Amino acid sequence: MPDAKPAADSAARLRQPRKNNPEKTRQDILLAAIHEFAEQGLSGARVDAIAERTSTSKRMIYYYFGSKEQLYLAVLEKLYGDIRATEATLRLDELEPEAAIRRLVEFTFDHHDANVDFIRVASIENIHHSEHIAQSSLIRSLSKSIVSQIAAILARGVTAGVFRAGIDPLDLHLLISSFCFFRVSNRYTFSTIHQLDLGEPEAKARHREMICEAVIRYVRA
Predict the structure, then answer these.
(1) Which of 144, 145, 172 shows the shortest CA–CA distance to 157?
(2) pLDDT class for 3, splitting at 50, 70, 90?
(3) pTM, whole model, 2 decimals?
(4) Looking at residues 175-193, what average pLDDT do you find?
(5) Average pLDDT in the 90-103 region?
(6) How many angstroms separate the CA atoms of 77 and 178, rounded?
(7) Are 38 and 125 in contact (CB under 8 A)?
């Protein structure tokens, strides 16, 4: 008669609860949700699909986030939090003013180009008139940091005599973000209408340098 012990041991192992890492589980759900919301929008996204992407359950997702809308808000906070956190590591205060502006523009261009899901989710939130971001004091607080950094760079540049006075740091943030965002958000329509491949390396390098030069010429004394 075959030994039943190995089969019994295997069954016992299957019944044992998995050791869980709550923070990793939460992050895995967020990453899956980013892709789902980016592809399907808020209304089209399905919690079932997010559960399938993470090999978890709807019940577990609701345990961590409460509802699909709260999960969507958590996605927005993660996406904006990630870009603001990376900006904080650029050490812009250690660079000469013009070099700091160039570094910030290059980072914004590269980040938006590489993070299409961020652009898509931000575009979706604009369709919803920013009603979810309006609920997040975290995103508003985080976003003040980049405006403060730009203000400090501009002040240093004015003191050094290399930047002109009177530039609004929020306006400059808008100028930088608008080109970098549009290039990704309108990539397909713009490329189709003008028969231009915006993903082509030469075009990308040309546009990266163009926005750097445009911003630097705008702030120079």
Answers:
(1) 172
(2) low
(3) 0.86
(4) 96
(5) 97
(6) 20
(7) no
Tokens of 137: 């004091």
CA distance 144 to 87: 12
DSSP per-residue codes, the chain: ----HHHHHHHHHHHSPPP--HHHHHHHHHHHHHHHHHHHHHHH--HHHHHHHHT--HHHHHHHHSSHHHHHHHHHHHHHHHHHHHHTTS-GGGS-HHHHHHHHHHHHHHHHHH-HHHHHHHHHHHHTTTTTGGG-HHHHHHHHHHHHHHHHHHHHHHHHTSB-S---HHHHHHHHHHHHHHHHHTHHHHHHHHT--TTSHHHHHHHHHHHHHHHHHHHB-
pLDDT at 22 (0 to 100):
84
d(CA 7, CA 13): 10
pLDDT tens digits along 29-57: 999 999 999 999 999 999 999 999 898 89
